[in-house]
């Protein structure tokens, strides 16, 4: 009953107004407010301040500066294997599975459409049909900068307006198609594993989403889908594996998409596992693996005949 009431209230409250108020509150330079809020969040969520590059709490001008703090260079070592796919975020894995018939798993008994997730772009969705996806949830205790799973060249960015339901497990299990309903920023990259999409999903009190090449994408929100094309940019955006690509101002969720037969998730990487930026979560498929898969498919078709 308590969970049902929590979800019901979210259908009724003004998502964007409350999130805009949170944007202002987390950027207030009032020292008493900033200090109280920072200390409260540290204690409430057991945040490890020692990992921060700057652990002098008085030096952060606003709470948001602290919340999106940079970590020490040695706090998140990058997996060294050349074919390793790195975790883009600290958090808990909600799902890691195949995109089946254009649908992604949201929670037990619930899924949502790939095309809807990508702002209605069916041509773009076709690039990921039959591919792999993962959803990683960031709680307030987690590091909130996002990093590249693989090196890539940015080709497109899409801002899809929408609601701002909470993305905690209770709400995800209850609200149909939540990730295709919430406001989100989609970043498309060309990588050694083909096209890769990083989808930064907004949520209630996530006061903004930023990327390193654009800055703050939202707010303000919009009434229509917005597109940016970087394919033929005079100054192309190319980011290295493990390099920062964006950040959430407050907690949320990132979804990663790859095309069919391009990558394999690691055996340890599955729903409810905990990950940190830079650790290996999968591997890029080698050409040998792809040849074996093709041969197996041909053998299967021949045996059916």
Ordered list of secondary-structure elements with their pairings:
Blueprint: H1 2-12, H2 15-26, H3 31-45, H4 63-67, E1 84-86, E2 91-98, E3 103-107, E4 110-113, H5 114-117, H6 122-126, E5 132-137, E6 145-147, E7 152-160, H7 169-174, E8 184-191, E9 194-201, E10 208-211, E11 215-218, E12 226-229, E13 238-239, E14 244-249, E15 253-258, E16 263-265, E17 274-275, E18 280-284, H8 287-304
Antiparallel strand pairs: 1-18, 2-5, 2-17, 3-4, 5-15, 6-14, 7-8, 7-12, 7-13, 8-9, 9-15, 10-11, 10-14, 16-18
Tally of domains: 2
As residue ranges, the low-confidence spans are none
The tally of beta strands, per DSSP, is: 18
The number of helical elements comes to: 8
Radius of gyration: 20 Å
The oligomeric state of the chains shown is single chain
- Largest sheet features: 9 strands, antiparallel
Helix share bin: 10-25%
User: Shape, please?
Assistant: globular
Query: What is the rounded distance between the termini?
Result: 55 Å
Q: Which structural category do the helix and sheet elements fall into?
A: alpha+beta
Beta-sheet strand percentage?
25-35%
- Give average pLDDT, whole number: 91
Q: What is the N-to-C succession of helices and strands? A: HHHHEEEEHHEEEHEEEEEEEEEEEH
Written description of the protein model:
By secondary structure, this protein is an alpha+beta fold. The protein folds into 2 domains: 2-67, no CATH class; 84-285. Helices cover 25% and strands 30% of the residues. The longest helix is centred in the last third of the chain and has 18 residues, at 287-304. The model has no long low-confidence stretch (mean pLDDT 91).
């Amino acid at each position: 009953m308590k969970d049902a009431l929590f979800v019901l209230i979210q259908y009724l409250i003004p998502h964007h107004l409350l999130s805009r108020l949170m944007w202002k509150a987390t950027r207030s330079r009032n020292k008493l407010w900033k200090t109280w809020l920072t200390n409260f969040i540290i204690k409430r969520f057991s945040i490890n301040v020692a990992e921060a590059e700057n652990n002098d709490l008085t030096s952060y001008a606003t709470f948001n500066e602290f919340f999106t703090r940079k970590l020490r260079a040695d706090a998140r070592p990058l997996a060294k294997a050349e074919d390793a796919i790195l975790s883009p975020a600290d958090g808990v894995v909600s799902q890691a599975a195949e995109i089946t018939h254009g649908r992604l798993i949201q929670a037990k008994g619930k899924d949502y459409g790939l095309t809807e997730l990508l702002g209605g772009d069916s041509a773009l969705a076709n690039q990921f049909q039959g591919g792999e996806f993962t959803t990683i949830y960031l709680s307030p205790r987690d590091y909130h900068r996002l990093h590249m799973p693989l090196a890539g060249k940015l080709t497109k960015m899409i801002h899809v307006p929408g609601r701002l339901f909470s993305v905690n497990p209770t709400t995800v299990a209850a609200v149909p198609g939540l990730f295709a309903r919430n406001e989100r920023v989609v970043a498309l990259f060309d990588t050694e594993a083909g096209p890769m999409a990083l989808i930064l999903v907004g949520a209630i009190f996530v006061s903004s989403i930023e990327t390193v090449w654009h800055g703050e994408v939202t707010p303000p929100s919009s009434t229509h889908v917005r597109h940016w094309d970087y394919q033929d940019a005079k100054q192309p955006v190319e980011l290295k594996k493990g390099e920062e690509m964006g950040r959430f101002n407050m907690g949320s969720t990132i979804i990663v998409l790859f095309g069919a037969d391009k990558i394999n998730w690691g055996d340890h990487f599955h729903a409810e596992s905990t990950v940190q930026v830079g650790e290996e979560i999968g591997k890029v498929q080698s050409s040998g693996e792809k040849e074996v898969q093709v041969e197996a498919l041909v053998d299967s078709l021949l045996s059916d005949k």
